[in-house]
Design goal:
With 243 residues, this protein is mainly alpha-helical. Helix content is 57%, strand content 3%. α6 packs across α10.
């Protein structure tokens, strides 16, 4: 059993394995009171005035209590991050990392700006950790790129992957969780999907081209990935991924 888990862990692509490891270590550390969440949560005031810039990263690593909700999100993180990195981003580790960086930036920006808008500022002020939202963003992007895959929810009903984010959102509401966190992930995911998959086919321009400085951090190989025949858009724009 232990050997199987070790083999499963080692076979994970680098970004998924790194994020999963950091999330588990951070959450376990907080549960054991080795780390305090007080030093991790998103606090704009302390970031600006006390220069605690690490909060921009650590708020994406803590998944609250180690309960059933934590296990669900670890499953989503391990499964959908792995599927994206091994398929849509196969041979493009830098692009996958840039997608996460873009999503984290969008989520942080939404919370900071939302906190300054009357009537909704109170709701945004209660959002201290965006780890669940970033995980939900990955689920959303995967569902958009694999819309026709058939899925089953707890064996109760079947649906196509295009509806997966909405099914999970409905489940969150059903169990009494706030829909804000999932909705933020959907907004960030749709922003990435539109700018990376839709807009380039409409205009021929790709605004989310990965910066050369990020590509230089990863030794990627050029891999040709076959696009499903029932994809809703045409063939991707030809691009040279070499530095």
């Amino acid at each position: 059993m232990a050997q199987a888990v070790e083999e499963w862990y080692k076979q994970m692509p680098i970004i998924t394995r790194s994020y999963l490891t950091a999330a588990v270590v951070t959450t376990v550390g907080c549960s054991l009171e080795i780390i305090t969440p007080y030093n991790l949560y998103l606090n704009p005031s302390r970031i600006v005035k006390q220069y605690e810039f690490w909060r921009l990263v650590t708020n994406f690593l803590y998944f609250r209590k180690m309960d059933l909700d934590f296990l669900f999100h670890m499953f989503f993180l391990a499964r959908y991050s792995k599927l994206l990195e091994e398929n849509s981003f196969r041979g493009r580790t830098a692009d996958f990392f840039y997608m996460l960086l873009f999503g984290a930036s969008v989520l942080t920006g939404i919370v900071l700006v939302g906190g300054m808008i009357p009537y909704v500022s109170e709701s945004f002020a209660r959002i201290f950790f965006l780890s669940n939202s970033l995980t939900f963003m990955m689920v959303y992007v995967w569902s958009k790129r694999n819309p026709f895959i058939h899925m089953s929810f707890l064996g109760l009903f079947t649906f196509t992957a295009a509806y997966l984010p909405w099914v999970l959102l409905g489940f969150s509401i059903l169990v009494g969780s706030s829909p804000w966190i999932d909705l933020l992930g959907m907004v960030a995911g749709h922003a990435y999907y539109f700018l990376e998959d839709v807009y380039p086919r409409m205009t021929g321009r790709r605004p989310l081209r990965t910066p050369a400085i990020i590509k230089s951090l990863f030794a990627d190989e050029n891999v040709v990935v076959a696009r499903p025949g029932n994809a809703r858009f045409g063939a991707p724009i030809a691009e040279n991924h070499e530095d």
